[in-house]
Amino acid sequence: MMPNTSWFCILLVVCVSDAAGFDTETEFIYNGFAGSNLQLDGSAYITQEGILSLTTASSDITGHGFHPNPMFMEFQGMYANPSFSTTFVFSIAPDYSSRTGEGMAFVISPAADFAAAMPGGYLGLHSYRGNTFLAIELDTVANQEFKDIDDNHVGIDLNNLVSITSCSAGYSYQDNTGNIIQLTFEELRLSSGDPMQVWVDYDGGSMNLNVTLALVPMYKPSPPLLSYTVNLSTFLPQAYVGFSASTGDKRVAAHQILGWSFKLNGLAPPLNYSLLPLKREHQIQDAEKKKLIKWLPATLSSLAMVTGLTACFLLRCWCNRRRENQEDWESELGPRRFSYKILRAATNGFSSRHLLGKGGFGRVYAGVLDPSGLRIAVKRISSESSQGLAQFTAEILILGRLRHRNLVRLIGYCRHKDELLLVYEQMPNRSLDKYLHTIKTKNMLIWSQRLHIIKGVASGLLYLHEDWEQVIIHRDVKASNVLLDAEMNGRLGDFGLARLHDHCVDAHTTHVAGTMGYLAPELTRFGKATKATDVFAFGAFILEVACGRRPVGLNARGELLVLVEWVREVWEASGCIADAMDPRLEDYPATEAELVLKLGLLCSHPLPAARPGIRLVMQYLDGDMPLPAGISPDYFAITDVDDVFEMAPSLATTVTSLSGGR
Hints:
- The chain is an alpha+beta fold.
- Helices cover 24% and strands 27% of the residues.
- The chain has 3 domains: 31-272, Jelly Rolls; 336-425, 2-Layer Sandwich (Phosphorylase Kinase, domain 1); 432-658, Transferase(Phosphotransferase) domain 1 (Transferase(Phosphotransferase), domain 1), CATH 1.10.510.10.
- Helix 8 (531-547) packs antiparallel against helix 10 (590-603).
- GO terms for molecular function: ATP binding; carbohydrate binding; metal ion binding; molybdopterin cofactor binding; oxidoreductase activity; protein serine/threonine kinase activity.
């Protein structure tokens, strides 16, 4: 029997009474729950990693977590039928010793007290006295009592567990086959342990409630998984938003929320995936299973051991195939999804003859896509890389949305079993460092090419720091990450370490990442990446290009040589900073050489306050502004910030007025 929904209301504005009337909170965001003040009950708790754990793998338990403030509907005149948007990342990790269950739900209710609600198929929502709620259920059990369609579905519930509409869990994507574009549905297994994301959007005008599901990381698919028209205009006095989950007698699972945001009358703020613990729960449990397997041969017969190992192998193959199928998605927006078969064919089976380069992240292979003939570069992230998934996620979610002539373009991606692959447009002239540090004179770059590359990378960095919708800190600016296209334009790539944050907001990155020689002194001390630490790395990059030396190396006597210090010492000893230029360069304008070398030292100043912002750097390079007067070798040895502007007073006004926020 379908429930009557005409009286039901959703909370949408958080209000706090004051002398003037009401002070509203219209949105919130949890990029992890460490330090949060959620209202918890039952088995729910916040883990050390900042995860909201609703249930553990124990029998017959419930857990709830709600935003602490109720949301009031006191603005009927302004929002007669308000709209809202929310999104959250969750995971359901089964206990492999039993069947998975029961499920979890996003909940809107006039009360946050569900302590009396029942476990099992009731999902911690329904009690004997009855509860009032709107729920988006993520159900992993087919319960005949509630007319569930299967054991892996998403449903919309009003006041009871019989869904008013439901659908098997999954998402739709456009599948391009030849000249035919068709919509394909890809099923997801809610209890796989993989992080997944849900979007819930209600339009008060059309009274349309949409629910969308996808894997992480993915752009929001279109169309939504569920769409239902419901009138929520009759207001309740107040309501709460949160989550509920339960386990059964023989069906258990760990139900977790990794991040959550909510907004009234607008789109929910995007979650910062770099701050979320995205490691799949089943990976942890697989490791625990391996420990258990070690003692089995001592107690089992040879036949039983062989049978068990064979079964495990077949199960693993089946799970890997299923996992690959779950990733076959391609959005109209952002990078394209490629099948593993296509990329394998494009690279001739990842042949060593197609190898372009390798590093700690894995290997990069050249390839050609059929039938278009497009030349690509495929980064095959190593399964041994501890940050492989995090870097894979960062590249897709950051580089996949960027478009700039001096940034490498990410074309697409692929996930195959445990492999992570990224697909870029191929840069025919490869990386800049091959030209700077080669002993072959015929491959050496002339000065005009070097200056053009420096300006190009500066332009790309300006786009990241100032001109995009959010601030992007690259964290790994260096010559080997600058690729050269057919016209020898420099393009900054490798965004695996990149982090983003809103403009006028401090970055929260506290993990030291980057390459020695490009790391700012404050980064190694405090671990906080900022625009200024990117500028320091860019300064080291400038000097590397101009001098033809690596930022850190050995001199002829085998002693450590730090390029920034060496350039300053050459300038101080000879009185001519151009003496530090690459001796292989035969012809260059002295004024340009002096500008680039001094700018490199300025960007690599040991004090962040003394470094120019990247917009000011571009003005220097373009000749729109002269370098500040009063700069000498001694200026770059200053360690007291009060002495910076005393020695070069013209720099004080320039840096503070034109550099922008750090």
